[in-house]
Amino acid sequence: MSTHAAVFDVDGTLVDTNHLHAVCWWEALRQAGHRIPMTSVHGAIGLGSGDLLEHLLGPERDRDEDSAISAGHKALYGTWHERLTPFDGARDLLLRLHADGRPVVLATSASGPELKALRAAIDADEAISETASADDVEAGKPAPDPVRHALDLVGAEARGSVFVGDSVWDMRAGRRAGVLPIAVLSGGVCRADLEDAGAAEVYTDTAHLLRNLDGSALGRG
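Structure tokens predicted for N-formylglutamate deformylase:
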């Protein structure tokens, strides 16, 4: 019998952090002498730190600055760890899927103390089978590697599995991994961009998805 996993992005999907990340990246870039519009920074959220800097500063940037900028972002964002807030329905959605026998896997670029803070905010460890970190793969989203790694962790097949995320990078990664991408609008990305990137279904947030779970691809799986 094949296993169908429910893979979840975390930032902007389960926990309300995207705008915090945008502010912290904006400030870290400003401190390094880069003036990047906040809208551009927000559009890059969901990429790993190296890919984010590549997207915002381009391939001709001084790469020697990357580690200092990333460390600046990490330090700024770390001041919010104790205040991270999950979206309504996030915990109940994961618990419901677990009760239904669906393996739940987190696919996130977070690791270490940041990942610990996110899991504490979600407060559903009993429902989470595995966590796939960007540290575990060679290429982060929009490459399919994080989603494929998440599936491998629970022995799940791509066909019949679902990846829930909030960014265009999530949707592209899901499509490339062969799973069905479901989008939520809670990360601040518009419906049209998510659908253009491959979203099969779009929900307002995790609470909306939970209310409509039985009729969704996630529930049907």
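The beta strands are 6-8, 104-108, 130-133, 162-165, 180-184, 201-203.
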